[in-house]
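BUG: 3D viewer hangs when loading the predicted structure for this chain

Environment: internal workstation, default settings.
Expected: structure renders.
Actual: progress bar stalls at 90%.

Input used:
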Amino acid sequence: MTLRTLDTLGDLSGKTVLLRCDFNVPLKDGVITDDGRVRASVPTIQRLIEAGAAVIAVSHLGRPDGAPDARYSLAPVAARLAELLGSTVSFATDTVGADAAAKRAVLSAGDVLVLENLRFDPRETSKVAEERAEFAALLTAGVDAMVSDGFGVVHRKQASVFESAQAVPSAAGLLVAAELDVLGRLTETPERPYTVILGGSKVSDKLGVIEHLLPRVDRILVGGGMLFTFLAARGLAIGSSLCEMDQIDTVNRYIADAAERGVEIVLPTDVVVASQFGADAEHVVRSVDAIEDTPFGASGLGLDIGPETAANFAALVESSKTVFWNGPMGVFEIPAFAEGTRAIAAALTRVDGLGVVGGGDSAAAVRTLGFDESAFGHISTGGGASLEFLEGKTLPGLEVLGW
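Structure tokens produced before the viewer hung:
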């Protein structure tokens, strides 16, 4: 596996480069609420500018169903990118239409152009290879090279990720190369103790990564909504908490497999139980064997790990040399149920080794909760891609770059 990097593209002075970024940022009323992915694209763009290239940056945003939708326009991204670069960034109001063609035609060395949302064209995500190839040919027309730097989409076989990289000389950008370096350390040469923290809502979202990591890690800490499926597998009453009953047998199999391998699966000892889902909900802390022993009874909802669990998890994280965290411990968007996630994030900043925030909601949480990103060993920009990599899957967007 030899990933093609920027150096393999040779002299880019005077060349035009199509750059696949991941600008899939959250928007509220047309305003970016978390610009982490835009900031992550800046080093590669700056490297290309310094090399004398003209840059055409492309990305998707949201799920616009293959047609223009003003709610998912990349115009706010282009404006934010200009602020981050401290220079002019042009924006085309279409992707392969008249405005894009006109603005591409006048590009010169050092210029940056952002095209409108790729998913406004149904060919970007088409299941038909010929349709994707047709769209890729339009995207790469007149360009000298393609750089793939949207790690969050490398697990997708889409026109701008896969076929575009086949159409012209292509290589990975700095972000993708950095992500692979870190993920390689997690799977190939991790320092021990190696702890994985898994949260989020569903066990089913994490089955593959649990199975693939069991032979490689020392312990797995389970939080988030998925913890209640584990508690139910132990025969505990969980009230109205989220639970995937169809995964009980699978969970028990993983618990048995872990025991055979000497891997600890560490479950919470207490949880925060609420009367309902909402910022104004009544809530209490209960041990995991007394979740229904509240004023809410069987209607109570577990929405965060409890303080005892948070302290225990934090101690285990801090005692580790390698840590991978994917999925919040609770509903961190609501302050009353954010403390478990906050405790994990804080502990991760104190790891004497490699601490990795595995993208997605975990990355959003550390920013929402006000943590300094530089305090973490690495914050991944691709939650789904990170998980599929750790599951050992072949990722089309990396395979096409020689990986």
